[in-house]
Amino acid sequence: MKHAEKANSQKKVSFNITTFTYDQSDLIFLGSYLIYTNGDLSLPDPLRSGSLVGRVLYKYPVPIWDSSSGNVASFETSFSYEVWNLRSYEPSDGFVFFLTDPAIAAIPDNSRDGLLGVADANNAFNRFVGVEFDNYANPWDPNYEHIGINLNSLYSAKIMKWRWLNSYGTTLKVNIKYDSASSTLTVVVTDDDGQISTLSQMLDLKWLLPEMALIGISGSSGAYQVNDILSWRAKIYVKKEAPVKFLTDAQEGRSTLRTSDVLVYGWVGGKHACVDLTGVSPLMGLGLGILLWNGQLSKLYQAR
Question: Does 164 map to a domain?
């Protein structure tokens, strides 16, 4: 049975999915995937052979930053998963939580196997921010199972060893949080036995992603690995604050004080004085003087 809760506003999105269904209205499934009768999602479909890729996307673009205020979103997403290999083969390849441009929602070409369905091997630049769970060492990977934070590339900006437990029914829990105040992305993975692994990286989502983005999970397999997602929830929020109307021009309806306007007040010869470093002062009826400021001449206005 599907269980999804959604609370959308212009700058806030949240959802909680505890079981997956083929007719889920708030999700988009692409590529190869399988939904079991118990509601677990496998990316890609482990019953099909070959090198396959599958992804699930939250249907609606989520806010990443606000152009009117410049504020960047904070978000938190959590999911539980199982990863295990088929028969006695070496497992490959992995899966990745990612954010990307809504204009490129489709699975990229040439993105199978170690490219995890998010990067085109023929493109030098692939726009996404991701957290990968990779248990196969490709030429660009470290020689061990790892969790990595990826910024437009599968060459991870930060890596830690992935304590992968190859056992059916072994569930791991992931929490990924981005704090806009500190510009820090933090990943916390909890094993079945209670061991906790953490990874963090400073990054600015405003420079990496468009104002609105899609979020999703992508998995790839060289036919020897099963990636099962058991549940997925997320909460994204960006503050939208009204600009402060300071020194507002009545005719233009906007502030006349720009970010470059700097006014310094003080006393000169027992009189009020204002140093206007931009040469435009809101003060009227003042005399003109000269003041040396940081080695440059600036205007000094003295009250009569």
Answer: yes
- Provide the domain count of the chain: 2
**What is the spatial distance between Cα 112 and Cα 102, in angstroms, rounded to a whole number?**
20
Q: Phi/psi at 202 (nearest 5 deg)? A: -80, 135
Residue 299 structural domain: 241-303
Q: How many CB atoms lie under 10 A from the CB of residue 196?
A: 10
**Whether the Cβ atoms of residue 287 and residue 304 lie closer than 8 Å to each other:** yes
pLDDT of the residue at 124: 63
Instruction: Say yes or no: 250 and 205 in one domain.
Output: no
- Strand 212-221 to strand 74-85: parallel, antiparallel, or no bridges (unpaired)? unpaired
Q: Is residue 263 part of a domain?
A: yes
Average pLDDT for consecutive 10-residue bins of the chain (304 residues)?
43 93 95 95 86 91 92 96 74 84 86 69 81 80 84 89 66 94 96 87 95 93 80 91 48 49 49 49 40 39 38
Residues 168 and 266 occupy one common structural domain: no
DSSP state letter for 63? E
* Assigned domain for 7 exists: no
Domain with 112 in it: what CATH number? 2.60.120.200
Say if 113 falls within a structural domain.
yes
What global pTM score does this model have?
A: 0.74
pLDDT score for 80: 95
What's the pLDDT score for residue 33? 94
Q: What share of the chain is helix, strand, coil (3-state, %, to 5)?
A: 5, 45, 50
